[in-house]
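Revision sheet: structure tokens.
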Amino acid sequence: MYKDTRRNLDEAYYREVKLQQLKQLADAKGLEQVTEENLHRYLPEYPGRHKVYRINIDGGAYFGYTGSTLNKRLAFHEIDSRTKNTTLYRTWREYKQHNPDFKAHIQEVMTFRQPMDALLYEVKMIYNHKKNGFRVLNDSAGGEGPTFHVKQRAKPKDILKHFDSVATFNRVMGIVEPIVPELPLIGDRPGKLVHTTRMEDAMLRSVGFDRLQTLQYYRHTKGKVRRRLRKAWTNKDFKVLLNFFTKAKQNKTISIR
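Predicted:
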């Protein structure tokens, strides 16, 4: 079987390429003809897939992240369920005592190209299920990757793909935000401002920005310009704000209605 080393292929194209390769191989060696129906038996897992998965036990749901295969991740969960003392594994052992034939099933919820997106979606799923009153077996808010935590690495442009504001994400993750000052605070340098993303979110809501426009603002606006806008917002200098948003509309950097 050919090994595909190209990591950036679109999944549909990847399947098409592999299907053609396997058909040629089957014809050359007189093997069973490969079709779309039996392709899964020959096709290696699509490279670079980061998954959010779900395990249901006794009416509760556990959400997790893996960059590996689902079966391999479930196997590690089964090993940990014998010794570890978390909500998931306690529920697992108790349910298995009353149902000796119980076999846990793992279900893929969503797949992503980047681990950051998968981890943020995991956080979102845990938060939404708790908010809607469902039983969640996660002890934490999620977002723990193999080498980093989303609290340390997530940028506003990443967060706003999954949450309505950065402030909501900070509240979910328990990140303490400083109080937004009503007036500029003078620090070591004259005119130095104490600001937060919550201040910026409030400024963008005041001009009617929706989630997409907020994402475009964080993605396309330079840090120097953002500092000037925050200072204008704090000083109630609406002329500066009006000039910026007018130019942004003319340049089509941000799609303002």
